């Protein structure tokens, strides 16, 4: 329960931080409320008090002013960031009529801190100065008026200008940091694009060239073969090589991308293509038993593609390391999981093992684990005590939507 309480505290703090300006305005209104009321009720200064000829609390305007002025000031304070004229106009009027110096301090500070129109700020400052002269006209000591101007206008004005300049500087620095971050991302994307293009060139110059030579030699062997078995084998090699070239072209297209930044979206193999994959393995001389359990149905593209790649990699490994051994492929459509299992028996001694083992990168199973993990599943691969080998992948079932939208985001993440 501790993490839930921590999450609620964090959410409450975030909501409070988003409303910090409104909360600050409410605090200002509550803090100034008694001062505004006391300043309005103070006798001796202001045009209204001078005109009455008697202390203000004894006049008939005492009660309405004591109630109206603080309430209007509180309302104007809540809108000081969006409607500054309300607070400034009320502050100047209260200053001239009642000699109340408290509202104008907040009004001048707010306008200087939140608005950049220096001409209007100078105009409001001059108007407030005139209001001070009118409100304190009867004061015999001139230094009192100078002190009031310094305390109620000059100091709040300087503080507001400093706060506004500091906030604008922070905003500019944040925008500059964001701009530099965007430029850094663009430079990284350009570097990635250049590296992908380089890899595509290397693959085209080396791998594609070698596979093309293999296809040409297989075609020549198919034509000049002395017996039908050799011709059939050469034809199978030629067909497999052409399919490898087609898939290699798709990979090169993904690496290079087109001029508009979109990679070609050629159809990728799905579970419905397992029949062709297993048929090709059988034609190559492998003994493959294939079974499907559960209720076959259309799943998300990433799930089906990942299961297909698991079976493909397992069959390739069985052909390399256990030639001539029977292989069992099982695909189980469960309610919550899709299970793909490929099991091969131990290599037969003295079987049809090639004289030279085919090259292997050693990253096939590692790549499968990454692909399965991106799909949200798990992969296990390992030998049995008798030397057999099993590859088993369990993938969470994601039903395909009618419009083909299920699993699109995950599929793109997996392909990336």
Automatic annotation (TrEMBL):
Species per Swiss-Prot/TrEMBL record: Spinactinospora alkalitolerans
Protein name, entry field: histidine kinase
Pfam families associated with the record: HATPase_c (PF02518), HisKA_3 (PF07730)
Major enzyme class: transferase
InterPro entries: HATPase_C_sf (IPR036890), HATPase_dom (IPR003594), Sensor_HK_TwoCompSys (IPR050482), Sig_transdc_His_kin_sub3_dim/P (IPR011712)
Reactions listed under catalytic activity: ATP + protein L-histidine = ADP + protein N-phospho-L-histidine
EC number: 2.7.13.3
Entry keyword Repressor: no
Residue intervals of the Signal transduction histidine kinase subgroup 3 dimerisation and phosphoacceptor domain: 195-259
Coiled-coil parts of chain: 163-190
Cleavable signal peptide: none
PANTHER family xrefs: NITRATE/NITRITE SENSOR PROTEIN NARX-RELATED (PTHR24421), NITRATE_NITRITE SENSOR PROTEIN NARQ (PTHR24421:SF10)
Annotated transmembrane regions: 29-48, 60-79, 85-109, 121-139, 145-164
Residue span of region Disordered: 342-364
Kinase recorded as keyword: yes
Record's GO cellular component terms: membrane
Domain Histidine kinase/HSP90-like ATPase, first and last residues per copy: 304-396
Keyword annotations of the record: ATP-binding, Coiled coil, Kinase, Membrane, Nucleotide-binding, Phosphoprotein, Transferase, Transmembrane, Transmembrane helix, Two-component regulatory system
GO molecular function: ATP binding; phosphorelay sensor kinase activity; protein dimerization activity
């Amino acid at each position: 329960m501790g993490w839930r309480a921590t999450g609620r505290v964090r959410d409450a703090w975030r909501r409070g931080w988003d409303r910090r300006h409104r909360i600050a305005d409410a605090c200002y209104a509550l803090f100034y409320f008694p001062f505004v009321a006391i300043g309005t009720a103070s006798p001796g200064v202001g045009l209204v008090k001078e005109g009455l000829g008697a202390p203000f609390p004894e006049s008939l305007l005492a009660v309405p002013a004591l109630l109206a002025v603080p309430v209007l000031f509180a309302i104007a304070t809540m809108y000081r960031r969006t409607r500054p004229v309300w607070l400034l106009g009320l502050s100047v009027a209260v200053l001239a009529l009642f000699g109340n110096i408290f509202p104008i301090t907040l009004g001048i500070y707010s306008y200087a801190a939140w608005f950049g129109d220096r001409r209007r700020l100078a105009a409001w400052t001059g108007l407030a100065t005139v209001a001070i002269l009118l409100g304190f006209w009867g004061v015999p000591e001139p230094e009192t008026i100078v002190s009031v101007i310094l305390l109620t206008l000059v100091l709040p004005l300087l503080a507001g200008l400093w706060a506004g300049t500091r906030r604008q500087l922070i905003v500019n620095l944040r925008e500059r940091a964001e701009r530099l971050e965007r430029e850094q991302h663009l430079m990284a994307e350009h570097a990635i694009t250049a590296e992908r293009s380089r890899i595509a060139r290397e693959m085209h110059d080396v791998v594609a060239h070698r596979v093309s030579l293999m296809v040409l030699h297989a075609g020549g062997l198919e034509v000049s073969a002395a017996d039908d078995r050799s011709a059939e084998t050469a034809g199978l090699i030629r067909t497999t090589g052409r399919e490898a070239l087609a898939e290699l072209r798709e990979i090169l297209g993904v690496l290079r991308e087109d001029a508009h930044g979109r990679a070609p979206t050629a159809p990728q193999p799905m579970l419905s293509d397992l029949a062709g994959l297993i048929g090709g393995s059988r034609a190559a001389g492998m003994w493959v038993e294939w079974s499907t359990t559960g209720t076959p149905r259309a799943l998300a593209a990433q799930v089906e593609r990942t299961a297909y790649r698991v079976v493909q990699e397992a069959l390739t490994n069985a052909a390399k390391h256990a030639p001539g051994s029977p292989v069992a492929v099982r695909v189980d459509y469960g309610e919550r999981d899709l299970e793909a299992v490929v099991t091969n028996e131990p290599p037969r001694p003295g079987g049809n093992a090639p004289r030279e083992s085919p090259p292997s990168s050693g990253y096939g199973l590692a790549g499968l684990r990454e692909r399965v993990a991106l799909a949200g599943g798990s992969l296990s691969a390992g030998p049995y005590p008798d030397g057999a080998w099993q590859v088993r992948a369990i993938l969470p079932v994601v039903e395909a939507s009618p419009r083909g939208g299920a699993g699109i985001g995950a599929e793109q993440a997996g392909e990336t």
